[in-house]
Specification:
Layout lengths: L1 H5 L11 H12 L10 E7 L6 E7 L1 E3 L2 E6 L11 E7 L2 E10 L2 H14 L19 H10 L1 E10 L1
Antiparallel strand pairs: 1-2, 1-5, 3-4, 4-7, 5-6, 6-7
Amino acid sequence: MRSQRLSSPFHPGPTVPHWVNRLVAGLLRSPFHALLSRTTMLLTFTRRKSGRRYTIPVRYLRTNETVLTLTDSPWWRNLRGGVSVDLSIAGQNMRGRAEVNTDPDDVEQGIRAMLRQAPSDAHFYQVRLDRHSQPDRASLKQAAQLHVLITIQTEHPA
């Protein structure tokens, strides 16, 4: 089962400390959001158990009405089954519907797409790059086992 692999004792845990997420979220909400908003957005959703709203900064790739993001953190479980989410991208708020994809081949393609946009993000996914900034096949396959791909279809402004 995919979720068991993601919670493996060998998994290093969250990639980014909570205090960094709070700092980045504050910057993305500020007039200075342009410093980060080309590759980082705010994703807001409702937690299943508590019903509380949760906002987290995530790296993203947007193509027209489709937004992709990846995570190795357990918060993705709140998005299973397709849920409404709010996004803040480049200072603009919008709504969307998130779908979780755990298929390793699809996740691998998502990681490749994200790395084409920002090769320097390879460390977030634990992927090694060769001297031409191409992902190492073995580390890419391993990263695809540890991450999930989240596809968000945007609907309209929030």
